[in-house]
Amino acid sequence: MFSQLFNSMADIPFEHDYKCYPVSFMSGDSRQDVDTGGKIIMPPSALDAVTRLNIPYPLLFSLRNPVADRTTHCGVLEFVAEEGRIYIPYWMFRNLCLQEGQRVTVKSGNLPKGDFVKFQPQSPEFIDIHNPKAVLERVLRKFACLTKGDTISLNYNNHEYELCVLECKPADAISIIECDLNVDFATPIGYEPPTKQSAPVEEEEPAPLIVDSAFTPFAGQGNVLGRRKKKTTADTPTTTNVIVRGPDLDFKIGKIIFTRAIPVAGGGDGVEMEFEAFKGTGNTIKQKRKK
User: Fold this and answer.
1) Distance between CA atoms of 91 and 117, rounded to whole angstroms?
2) pTM (2 d.p.)
3) Contact residues for 137 (Cβ-Cβ < 8 A; gap 6+)
4) Are 61 and 106 in contact (CB under 8 A)?
5) How buried is residue 26: exposed, middle or buried, by Cβ count under 10 Å (0-12/13-18/19+)?
6) Maximum pairwise Cα distance, the chain
7) What is the separation of C-alpha 203 from the centre of its chain, rounded to a whole number of angstroms?
């Protein structure tokens, strides 16, 4: 009979109405550790009640504002608040659309362990963090659970960032205590991807082609050392047109002109002359003896 009564008491959840205030309303030293986490401070009588009801640990609660019909979930950090009051983080206070001293319903419950959560930063400054997943992992150690639709707040390098919980799996409210949680991020609100501005490409005009008919490569005759030069009729040199890339000879402002003019020996006026390769007299190393 006693065991049946004990089991029936274990099935009764804890539920109570409290006046709700932000953490900044607490007397004494400032509690920044509470304001940057996901846990609340309750009165000592709440601890006695959950102990008598044999509520399983970890203690998880739902907070509901009946006026605005808003609900969120949280853990408990300490039982040191004044009787009839609870103190919650300011980001949670805003999510519930509360006024100072407004009553909320606190109810215990069990939440499934989460395996996936997706956040959306509320400002593009969040992408400036070097390793956002490592920063978020450190911040989430102060949280006991997450609720879809909530906008949590985290402080990093004296800067406050806000993240909206877009998706939770396997339920809309999950426990993140001692679980393997996969985290993903959506595109921050107000983020605009950088646009690549291509510099205008200036098309260069190709230099005109100049035909140089004075130079014919390898147009001479070959000589062999130690052999007499054969008497052959002089072949008339053939002239072929060689196309050489270069600037136009007509000078224009802003253009540099290079020419392939061959000056006349002895200093001329820059008049071109025909070029004949290997033009000269042949000599032999072995000279004839004088008789």
Assistant:
1) 19
2) 0.63
3) 183
4) yes
5) middle
6) 154
7) 35
CB 73 within 8 A of CB 176: no
| Those residues with Cβ within 8 angstroms of residue 121's Cβ, 6 or more apart along the chain or in another chain | 127, 161, 162, 163, 185, 186, 188, 189
How many alpha carbons fall within 13 Å on the CB side of residue 23?
20
Segment 121-169, tens digit of pLDDT = 999 988 888 888 888 888 899 999 999 999 998 888 888 899 999 999 9
Which region holds residue 166: left if phi is over 0, alpha if psi is between -120 and 50, else beta? alpha
Q: Work out the burial of residue 245: count CB atoms within 10 Å of its CB; fewer than 13 is exposed, 13-18 middle, 19 or more buried.
A: exposed
User: Using the 8-state DSSP alphabet, how is residue 235 labeled?
Assistant: P
- Tell me the C-alpha distance between 19 and 207, whole Å: 87
Identify which of 5-9, 21-25, 189-193 has the greatest average pLDDT: 21-25
What pLDDT, on the 0 to 100 scale, is given for residue 5?
Answer: 40
Q: Which tokens go with 268?
A: 């001329």
pLDDT tens-digit map of 100-115: 999 999 999 999 999 9
Contact, 153 vs 92, CB < 8 A?
no
Residues in the chain: 291
Cβ neighbours of 140 (radius 10 Å)? 18
